[in-house]
Amino acid sequence: MAPRTRNTRGVPTVSELRQFARYHLVRQVYDHPARDEEMGVVPLGYDPDAFEAEIRARADRFEVTELTRVEYAGRSRPIFAVRSKNHSTASKRLLVLSGVHGNEQAGILCVPEILDRYHAAGEEFADVALHVITPVNPVGAAEISRFNANGFDINRDFVRFETDEGRVVRREIVKLHPDFVVSLHEGPQDATFMFANECVSLELAERLLAALEAGGTVLAERDYFGARLTPKGLSPSKPVTRLLVRLWAATLGMRATNAYCETLGIPELTLESSWRETDEATRIRPHVDLCLALLRELA
Ligand SMILES: [Zn+2]
User: Pairing relation of β-strands 75-84 and 92-98?
Assistant: First the structure.
């Protein structure tokens, strides 16, 4: 790999964008959880053992179970399901997918705060159950990789379900049939935006964006392909993107969670904070604020 010209503008270089485009063309990119260090992802110090302990420490306030364990290099790591205790009585259900891409650490590190804020809200969310799957990709998270133990991109696996992780998420979505799914990601763009599938109304998306801005999140003007976002911070579902997504599934056998949810009629938002941002609080804030704003919308 040729040395990269140091990017001082905080925006992706052409070679980074080219590499990133490759992520959209192959389901199994490697045969191991590769790090792809040239992508400019700033790590936030995720420690898998500490994170597992933080989740288990909340078992007094939430129902914490292991959906499965995933093995790599002689170690196995849990995929947790964390459910609020009202999960069998509440009439609404929010499902949060955290850490589908293991190296997008803000989408994992935000979970304890989301749980604590949900719990602290008490009666406000009595009729909204919170379900969190975290980390969806525990091997990738431990290895600081986008990919799972076999080098698969789990978020391209929602046609063929070749990965254990993809099958676990499908099983939970089908069983739960949530009212809303939010998947917490990060990307190479310079600020925060979200993809909405066609089941998400523009009015709702705009209220959620306003909640993000009110919390201090800077919304991106362009997505990570350089396309202008209208409104700022939102990549809505459009007829042309839906056509591309259908072609992508039919020709390359690739589909992400947002399009999979669309086939079930479930609204889904994929949040993308900037993995280039060095300040941990700035990275984590949009994930927490979006989940809380969605819970309030459902309550
Ligand atoms: Zn991602």
Answer: unpaired
